[in-house]
Amino acid sequence: MKSIIILSTLLFVTASFMGIGSYIRYNNTLQEKGLYAPLQKEQTENTEPPQTNESTLSAPNSSDIAEKSEQTDNHSVQQQQPVRKKTIKHQSGQQANENVVHAARKPREREINFKEFSRAPLEDYPAPEITEVEKKVEEDVVEITEENK
Amino acid sequence: MSSTPQKITLSFFVKVLFWVPVIFFSSLLVYNTLPYFTFSKEYSFIQERILLFQIPFYSFCFYTHIAAGSFCILSALLQFSSYILKKRKAIHVWSGRIYVFVVLLIGAPTGMFMAFFAKGSNMERALFMVMALIWFYTTARGLQTVLEKNIVAHKHWMMRSYAMAMTAVTFRVYHIFFYYIGWSHLENYEISLWISVVGNILFAEAFIFFKNKKYIQSFTS
């Protein structure tokens, strides 16, 4: 049994050195490729264009964009409701409610599966960057609201 | 020393209050580890580290580590039973050998290797390395003291070793708790990690301190 202590100590030291060597060899490459980052990128791509697209849905001149965003929209029902409400309001000619809290700032709700106790929950999706198209649409919305005033 | 019935009842109640959640969460952890042995890459834990799993040795270390961890957690549950120790000592001995063998030869070395690529900052990686080192050292000391027939010291060192093994369980308990109160993932991960490691160490040391009149000597015996 004492030999186990000696053998395991050697193994532990070997593993430490292998870890150091692997770290030196792979760390830079992994950081460049974005260790842990690809999952975030994939998730942000797979998720609904987030709540920033709600402004596109409410803009009357962005119907094409709204259709595309709705096709890729995988929001939960709760999150879809404010989007649809905005669209209906705008179609009825009502002014967009500028006091609505931007949904991108709301924490994304997720159900946690207690059975997956040992598995880390997915990353919180970071707020996606606003694309140029969305910026333009937001500008259009501002112009429309100013015209309506 | 005579114990009043009230003290016996309280002691039993405290033991039940401690061991029922420990057994439950340990079993749940092992149960949720089993699907990983389908070697599917679809789990979020693996997806998050998909680049790392392209390194063959890391992949090997991961699967051996979780297998070893499962054996450790299950075998350790039997070790603290005074009934088994008195009536079926062979179970204690063999279960202990499995635990020591798995920790020293598999769990701690693979954990040490994977610590270099742990999630979080360099502080978290250093913490995992320290954890692997403590786990290894305390288990080795536990084995050494039992070979020297120093049973009291053996108990102390194995408690410390078990505290390190249980960080896998307590980390997830804290993780879920902080998730429900709305903490962001990375903060949750880091805080849960630190609390589970430091908290388990403090808990073990506190238990040894209150049970042992010569606490300082528990480190040198």
Descriptive keywords:
heterodimer, A: 149 residues, mainly alpha, 0% strand, rod-shaped, B: 221 residues
Structure description:
The complex is a heterodimer of chains A (149) and B (221). Chain A has 149 residues and is mostly helical. Helix content of chain A is 60%, strand content 0%. Chain A contains six helices and no strands. The longest helix of chain A has 32 residues, at 2-33. Chain A starts with a helix and ends with a helix. By secondary structure, chain B is an all-alpha fold. Chain B is built from ten helices and no strands. In chain B, helix 1 (5-33) packs antiparallel against helix 3 and helix 3 runs antiparallel to helix 5. Chain B is globular and about 55 Å long. The two termini of chain B are 26 Å apart. The model of chain B has no long low-confidence stretch (mean pLDDT 90).
Apparent shape of chain B: globular
Query: What about the largest sheet of chain A?
Result: none
**CA-CA gap between termini of chain B:** 26 Å
| Strand-pairing-aware structural class of chain A | mainly alpha
Q: Order of SSEs of chain B, N→C?
A: HHHHHHHHHH
Strand content of chain A is under 5%
Radius of gyration of chain B: 18 Å
Over the alpha carbons, how many angstroms does the gyration radius of chain A reach? 24 Å
Which band does the percent of strand residues of chain B land in? under 5%
Low-confidence segments of chain B: none
Helical percentage of chain B: over 70%
Largest sheet of chain B, if any? none
What is the subunit organization of this protein?
Answer: heterodimer
The secondary structure category of chain B is mainly alpha
Q: What is the rounded distance between the termini of chain A?
A: 86 Å
Tell me the number of helical segments of chain A per DSSP (H or I, 4 or more residues long): 6
Major protein interface: A-B, 40 and 49 residues
Shape descriptor of chain A reads: rod-shaped
Order of helices and strands of chain A: HHHHHH
**Runs of chain A with pLDDT <50, length 5+?**
38-108
Mean pLDDT of chain A, nearest integer? 60
